[in-house]
Amino acid sequence: MEGRPVLVGFDASPAAERALRWAAGEASLRGVPLLVCHAWTWPYPLSPQDENALAIVRGMGTLALEDGVRLAREAVPGLDVRPLLVKGTPPGALLDASADAALIVIGARGAGGFDKLPIGSTALHVPAHADRPVIVVPEHEQEHGAKRIVVGIDGSPASEAALRFALQEATFRDAAVTLVCAWWDPAALPGPERLPFTEPQAVKERAKARFAAAVEPCLADYPDVAVEYRFVMERAQRVLTDNAQDALLLVVGDRGIGSSPRTLLGAVTRGVLHEAPSPVAVVHERDPDVKKP
Q1: Residue % of the chain over a pLDDT of 70
Q2: pTM, to two decimals
Q3: Do 285 and 158 touch, CB atoms closer than 8 A?
Q4: Burial 75-101, CB ≥16 within 10 A → b, else e
Q5: Cα separation of 180 and 272, whole Å?
Q6: Which helix (H) or strand (E) holds 242?
Q7: Which CATH code for domain 148-283?
Q8: What is the mean pLDDT of the chain?
Q9: CA-to-CA distance for 137 and 254, rounded, in angstroms?
Q10: What is the C-alpha to C-alpha distance for residues 144 and 148, in angstroms, rounded to an integer?
Q11: For range 88-97, the mean pLDDT
Q12: What pLDDT, in 10s, does the model give residues 214-226?
């Protein structure tokens, strides 16, 4: 197999197993290798008293990695699966290994996460600092109604990168793409402040025309992908989460219009990572591989 591999983090947790299966399927669709990464480190505040203790911890990591490689090969027989054992933290190991990867796949929660949290620290840290797409796979599987990928657009450079990634994924999966553009409803304003928005339908139609024109160059590069538009005057996080209920994948930019340049992940992106029932792909404007075909 040629091309940049799909990189997946594996720590033997249920979410990591789901992420591993997703990543194996992704690598198969792309025709590239799968790189399974396990990070190990000494888990105690005091240094080990002897080398045997350190070797035992490293050996446990080796066993976990071997299990991940076996599961990936069972999921997609014949796939080129490559192991990577790294001494360090999971976020650091994945970010370092991603330099030569096409994308990163991780589970929403790792082995050390709190049961009541829908997403762990690694699943927030990696999308915030990576320079290529990161797919975060939830722990629990959902039913897919149709072969559909949902992408949020708001006119920002990151959302254009997200749209291109969604269209690329659609070609791999023979799926349709639903473009969702949602913005705040001015009806929430008190009466006097609402005067500039007294014709919400007209505002909506103008927005539809503007966004349709903005995405046309991207869509023209993927003429065989079926596309549906959804323009909604509601909170973006809620609309995206609702539309992802039966989707194969939800794709968002790392931060949208209105986010501070110092913000690593925008509020909507963080929100859908916590709440979306489907896998979520976070795409960055700076990603070198999300470009015209």
Answers
A1: 83
A2: 0.88
A3: yes
A4: bbeebbbebbbbeeebbbbbbebbeeb
A5: 13
A6: helix 236-243
A7: 3.40.50.12370
A8: 86
A9: 16
A10: 8
A11: 95
A12: 889 899 999 999 9
